[in-house]
Specification:
It is a single chain. Helix 2 crosses helix 4 and helix 4 packs antiparallel against helix 5. About 50% of the residues lie in helices and about 0% in strands. The chain is built from 5 helices and no strands.
């Protein structure tokens, strides 16, 4: 018997998340391209996260927090918004 696929509803990040990340990126002097490369993320994904149209996975959030040198309160906001069951954080994903 075939299992039914589970569809997730796309999660909308808090309105403050994109500007927080953009400000942190600018504070570190990185372009979106350089920040995305340093975090090992696609530039278009980085742009969408800053625009507020994508919510980062927890693993992507950790990478961004390190690259953007986020303060503890900024990290807390990012981690609270992060998705724990998608992208690199999906439980079905095997470690590379």
């Amino acid at each position: 018997m075939a299992s039914k696929a589970t569809f997730r509803t796309r999660r909308t990040p808090p309105a403050t998340l994109g500007p927080l990340l953009a400000a942190a990126r600018e504070r570190t002097g990185l372009s979106q391209r350089r920040a995305s490369v340093a975090a090992g993320l696609n530039r278009h994904y980085m742009c969408a996260v800053e625009a507020g149209t994508r919510t980062p996975s927890l693993n992507a959030a950790r990478r961004l927090a390190d690259v953007l040198e986020l303060a503890d309160d900024e990290r807390a906001q990012l981690y609270a918004a992060a998705v724990r069951d998608a992208g690199y954080s999906h439980p079905g994903r095997t470690a590379a």
